[in-house]
């Protein structure tokens, strides 16, 4: 575990601030029982200027941890909350919108409408994968395989935890063939949600050996 901790810290420290913060926000959404997606707006130097996480499934009247202006509404996607935290006078053309998941059509359109300069994501649209799309629309993921799998495992865990009824969610079933390494790591994570007062760093450190092996296997499969 000590070696894993050191290896994680090295990789984590080397990741851009946008990657680290968006993953931390996705973890917060997961721990809160929502959809695990985080997003940030960065300036040209890579400094986070605004942020948000998915809060669509949080009641705006309860005492949960969410603070986004759209909380509890269908619009409260991570990217929309990040954009809503920006100010009208900002030069959004000089900013980059980072998200742990490829933005949906609504969020991509909002980013274009607001004039965001660049949009980046860590993992491809999981819903596009679930429909059997061979290549999700948009640019290729940014950030590397490790963070792609980390983002997708949290996303799948949030969907599985919220599922009701028999069987597993279709999105998870499809990932078993489309992204088998991610699905296998998801299965290794205990059911349920992580502690609300935990951190993404401690959670990733716990699963770092399995995460790095999953990344190695995915890269070998796609060669």
What report would you give on this structure?
The chain is α+β, with helices and mostly antiparallel strands. Helices cover 48% and strands 10% of the residues. It contains ten helices and four strands. It has helices at 2-14, 17-31, 78-84, 105-114, 126-130, 145-162, 170-178, 180-188, 200-206, 208-221, and strands spanning 38-42, 48-53, 96-101, 118-123. Strands 2-1-3-4 form a four-stranded mixed sheet. It starts with a helix and ends with a helix. The mean pLDDT is 90.
Percentage of helical residues?
40-55%
- Helix-strand sequence: HHEEHEHEHHHHHH
Stretches with pLDDT under 50, minimum 5 residues: none
Structural class: alpha+beta
Number of strands: 4
Distance between the termini: 30 Å
The whole-angstrom Rg is 17 Å
Strand arrangement in the largest pleated sheet? 2-1-3-4
Q: Give the mean pLDDT.
A: 90
Strand-residue fraction? Answer: 5-15%
Features:
single chain; 223 residues; alpha+beta; four-stranded mixed sheet; 4 strands; 10% strand
């Amino acid at each position: 575990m000590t070696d894993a901790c050191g290896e994680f810290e090295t990789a984590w420290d080397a990741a851009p601030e946008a990657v680290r913060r968006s993953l931390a926000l996705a973890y917060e959404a997961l721990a809160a029982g929502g959809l695990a997606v985080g997003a940030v707006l960065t300036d040209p130097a890579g400094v986070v200027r605004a942020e948000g996480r998915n809060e669509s499934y949080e009641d705006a009247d309860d005492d949960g941890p969410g603070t986004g202006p759209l909380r509890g509404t269908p619009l409260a996607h991570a990217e929309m909350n990040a954009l809503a935290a920006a100010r009208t006078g900002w030069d959004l053309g000089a900013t980059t919108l980072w998200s742990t998941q490829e933005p949906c059509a609504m969020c991509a359109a909002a980013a274009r409408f607001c004039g965001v300069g660049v949009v980046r994501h860590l993992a491809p649209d999981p819903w596009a994968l679930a429909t059997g799309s061979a290549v999700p629309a948009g640019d290729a993921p940014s950030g590397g395989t490790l963070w792609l799998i980390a983002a997708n495992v949290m996303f799948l865990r949030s969907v599985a935890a919220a599922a009701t009824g028999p069987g597993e969610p279709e999105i998870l079933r499809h990932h078993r063939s489309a992204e088998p390494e991610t699905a296998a790591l998801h299965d290794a994570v205990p059911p349920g949600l992580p502690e609300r007062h935990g951190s993404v760093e401690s959670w990733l450190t716990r699963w770092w050996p399995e995460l790095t092996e999953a990344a190695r296997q995915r890269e070998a499969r796609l060669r």
